[in-house]
Structures
1.
Amino acid sequence: MSIRRLFPLLALAVVLCAAAATVGGPPGTGGELRFAVRAEPKTLDPHVVVDEPSQVVAYLTGGGLVRENRLTQELEPALATHWRVLEGGAAIEFTLRQGVRFSDGAPFTAEDVAFTIRRVADPALHSPLAETLRSGSGAIRAEVKSPTVVVVRVPNRIANLAGMFDGIAMVSSKSKTNPPAGLGPFVIAEYKPASHLLLRRNANYWKKDAAGRPLPYLDSIRLDILANRELEMMRFRKGEIHLLNGLEAESFDRFAKETPGAVRDLGPSLDSEQIWFNQVPTAPIPAYKREWFRNVEFRRAISAAINRADLCRLVYRGHASPADGPVSPGNHAWINTKLKPAAYAPQAARERLAKAGFRMQGATLVDSGGRPVEFSLVTNAGSKIRERTAALIQQDLAKIGIKLNVVPMDFPSLIERIMRTYQYEACMLGQIADPDPNEMMNVWRSSAANHQWNPNQKKPETTWEAELDRLMDEQASAVDPKKRKAAYDRVQEIAADQLPFIYLVHKNALVGVSPSLWNTKPAVLRPQTFWNVDTLAFNAPRGR
Amino acid sequence: MLRWSAVAALLAILAAGLFANWIAPHGYADQDRESPNLSPSRQYPLGTDELGRDRFSRLLYGTRVSLLLAPAAAAISIAVAVALGGFTAYAGAGWARASSLVTDLMLSLPTILILLTVRAMLPLNVSALASIVITCVLIGALNYPPAARVIGAGVDALLKSDFILQARATGQSPGRILIRQLMPGIRPVLIAQFWLLVPVFVMAEANLSLLGLGVSEPMPSWGNLLRELENYSAIPERPWVLAPLGVLMVTVLCLYAILPSGEPA
């Protein structure tokens, strides 16, 4: 055969190869993805999850009407092809995807959406999902307009109402099993307590790739229940598990040295670390200390005396950034970029304290009554990071004459003190923030239980807390995104000015992803490594 | 000979801890923030930790804390056990049963949970020194039951002996019998129990501090120094982080095991 005759065949082969490359399918399908959860899932019912292992299972097995793309932080259609917000955010109409079947083969209709919403809203179920939809008193209702159209009504207007449906897994109204049949990419095949949970590919999963191949590519997922972090990392190193979420800086650096391609620093996550002072009027602490803590100049001085750059460099090995407020730079949509990180300024701290009536007596700072400034900082025991942070802050505050006593305690005792008895002076803990400000209502509203410095107020005790309440309500009900942003920007300004929480750092999202996986797109939003689980595959065919 | 060698070695280690203020090249809390995670050098013989603190100095100060805390806690345990043993010997059958019941109850409860609970109820504004004393008293007071059982059995056996009967017959008061007759008789048991409890309490402090509930930062102790074990896979790369502490702990525990009998346990 001459070259001239061969040419068309070669050209055809090149075109076919190019077409295949354009479609961009996986190198192989099948195989078992393995990763670890740190505790037993407390429930397998997707509507009552509160703990992280249960959330992981619910994410992998549940299908929602919409889904947030964790990379772009945009809402995308899932079981609903489109939606329309009605009545200024008090209702939403979903148009459902057709031809979708549950894992048990039953067809998915608007009746199932209505059943799911009624189930979630049932007070007997105590679903935390209902709280996100119920911003006031009244019922949550679902109205079936046709087999593919359903309208959900909530008691009050909610900004970003569609986003609230990201975490609500649709379940079958006809299913007799518990938990009912779902629409996620995987189904629970086996659960061995204290050992593992095996999820099998849902053969009826609705999604297909660009080439029309059914998803997910993987055959199964094995979630090993593994409390020991070091063991988890050793197994990752051996290739026995494929994903690591929430790595600590020291482990990250070690992996980065050993296998540079296996770990990734995704930049600032939404998680922060902060301290706050107990400002509860009835707290059993000395009145003069409460006066210190309620004095904004005192709080500003403490903030200025903390060297956040050293915290990031020494405790987090550079995998964190100094915090300037409640919103992390990782939350592109909501951060107030006008706020700058608090500068380390011990001299300014001394001046602020002098302005507030404090003075130095030798090397000790005393208040106007001559009492030495000494307070305790409680935190949870067993966290090396927090103990190191506390040791650094201890020395920073010693430079301005303040004695800090660090008190690590077991978590239940700590929660008892900060939530019920208020027998503490200052506390250091982390905050796992959600991207949308609506999720922070239970922190910033003065009547909220997580308004940690002074929770459950009957009416706001300060003018700035009253303004916070007003702004949070405003952003929650505003439909115009610009108005919402303006309101939440102001919340951040007040938080940075009044410092009810003294934010320390925003931690980077550090993850491990096996090089054997294809199409991994880790993101700072949770679940960081497997949010696109239905399109994950292995680089080499594993057989199906 | 072996026993005296063990005593000498223990005293040498204790002396190194006691005179840490003079021997240690740096303070235990001094942070050289520009020199974190250094390898051993002339300036920092065992390198520095994440906050730039000298590991060698912290090991010396930690040795002082752990070596003083454990015998003090053991002494508290023995004192409680002797008091209970003496009390039950004279207080009558009813009280003896009640005391035995309390001891049984204490034995059946997981000590670590009681420690967590009691620790959580203590005042928050305590200095590092106070945290050592609190840890010592807690460990000592809550771990008396095993010693109380042995000492109680010893006291019981002695009370039935002929020389106690003779002392009673001669009209000696209970206090005199306790001090002049019982204590000399029970002394070998007390000494053996004391030396058995010391290494147990060294480990108890280590466990408690490993959980972050023992001696508070920035004061070092063997327990909170052992927290480096959390990243045990990093140890082969940097053996100086834990090897000196490990060798020291094993040596001290072996020496304590030799002390009561003069032979290795």
2.
Amino acid sequence: MTKKNKVKTSQTRGEDIQPSVHIDITRKRFRIGDFLAEKIIKGVAFLSITIIVLIFFFVFREAFPIFNTSKEIIKPATEQAKADTQETYGAVTDGDSKVKPNEINGAVSDTSAKKDVQETYGDVTDKQENPEQNGVQKANSSAITAKSTSTYTVSAGSGTDDNQSALKTMLSKEWVPVSEKPRYGILALIIGTFKITLISLLFAAPLAILAALYTAEFANKRMKEIIKPTIELLAGFPSVVIGFFALMVLATFLQNVFHYSTRLNSFVGGIAMGIAAIPIIFTITEDALTAVPRSFNEASLALGASKWQTAFFVILPAATPGIFAAILLGIGRVFGETMIALMATGNAALMDLNPFESVRTLAATIGAEMAEVVFGDTHYNVLFLIGSLLFVFTFVLNAIAEFYVKGKLMKRIQGK
Amino acid sequence: MILDKIDTKNMFLYYSGKMALNNISIQIPEKKVTAFIGPSGCGKSTFLRSLNRMNDLIDGVKIEGKVMIDSINIYDKNIDVVNLRKKVGMVFQKSNPFAKSIYENIAYGPKINGINNKHQLDEIVETALKNAAIWDEVKDRLGDSALGLSGGQQQRLCIARTLAVNPEIVLMDEPASALDPLSTAKIEELIVQLKELYTIVIVTHNMQQAARISDNTAFFYLGELIEYDKTRKIFTNPDKKQTEDYITGRFG
């Protein structure tokens, strides 16, 4: 019907010399091309939203059993098997020099009181850091961490502990997911993540913003053509390369400069992640600064302001929304950064505000442990909970950006 | 005796080798309104911008000859451009308030000059806004964004912002070209008042405007200064035929 209509219209239009007289505007025509294009674009948009929602839903569903306090998990059969594997694994890893103290410690824990276990374990973790301090096995350190984790994951499945007790340990200070009495101190991981995010931002944001300010306002055209692609090239660096650099070069250098005791710590990790975040913050800030109308520049200079005054007091405030977007993307990058965290932060979940202590981040925990965890285990669920937390934090971050920055802060800087 | 505030001698200006101003010599008296008229692209805006060295911002601009302000050549090597621009303020064709509050827009100039006393700043802001005849319209919303004002108000705000630095000369580059007749009338009235205190040089496309507000008028054509005289003489009995043709609307 519609097609016929269309043909008819085009015929009349073709024959007529004065088409405007004969265009029929009273009948609505169905345009298949427009319709399809519109629907496809709409479909793609909704699909992306659906995918995000589904991912979140899946991740959270896996985490959900943590909150399920009833003890309906049946594990007596597998438990026996696990107890066996524990022995075998212990024997095997005895050969491995590095993991040995942990294994012995595990044996001790069977006999001694639980309070003791916690403390001894803590001590051993610290000792495990010692070889790293001495710089004896720099390259191996993360590998060791991963290895010891794997050993534990398989050997001591926490079948006996129910989810309720796991939930209780969540606010504790320790992240010991694999032991006789597993403790899932997510709080330590959260604080670690925020600590390292803060450090990397304090390092990256000023550098990136100043570099962008220079590129946008002061550099001549040729200089700009060199600086911009160079910094943006850094964004294409695989994070494992940055992590490697931090592990081998940066860590030693910074330790020589600042003389702290733990070689791999949140400071080193933060700086390394900052390096990863700089190009992101730089690029978006530079775009935002370039987008500020040139007339602002002229107006300020005509008032007798110097170039620096103009850049700082006129151009920079005018570009605030863009700069905040840049910083948020930088935060997002650092927040989710896994490889650098694994390689350069020391990976010890210490709840400590000292920047020169090791930390373990949320993302690194998932990265290190997810591949080794027993499917459906409490530990497995907790890892998914961490995943959901990462999701939620990102949402909260964006919400803050949307409502606070664009609302109140902008008003304060740029007037109501 | 009328002092010559601005005095250019045999000034040439080149845009990447192409001549844009050809041998301009003009004496602009103090505390008068001097209007530059002429067709688009004749170099009047370029000349205006060279009076406070705004052309420095454009790559490839070369200037020869002398531009004397208070008997000092502003193109000398050891001239402080920043201070020159404090002395020679400028209002642009398109109103360009900063993305700040009304108060901050005005206070910006004094602040970068080192005035941080709140009381003093308040006073400067009020005086500048009153001088620009916009105080009554904005006094209750000084904290609001300047971008929320109407076009005419924004332009008067820009004038106030220029006045707040207390310049001696105010250059205006078609300040009313984007405004409605009412706002234009207000700005013209303002300019006539301001000449009591400042030397004003204004570029305009609107010949009635030049006739209404200026004391002297200069006619530019193709980068040359064709005629410069008392406004009344230019508009009633010009010496050059080109000037007469332009004013009567026969070309341009």
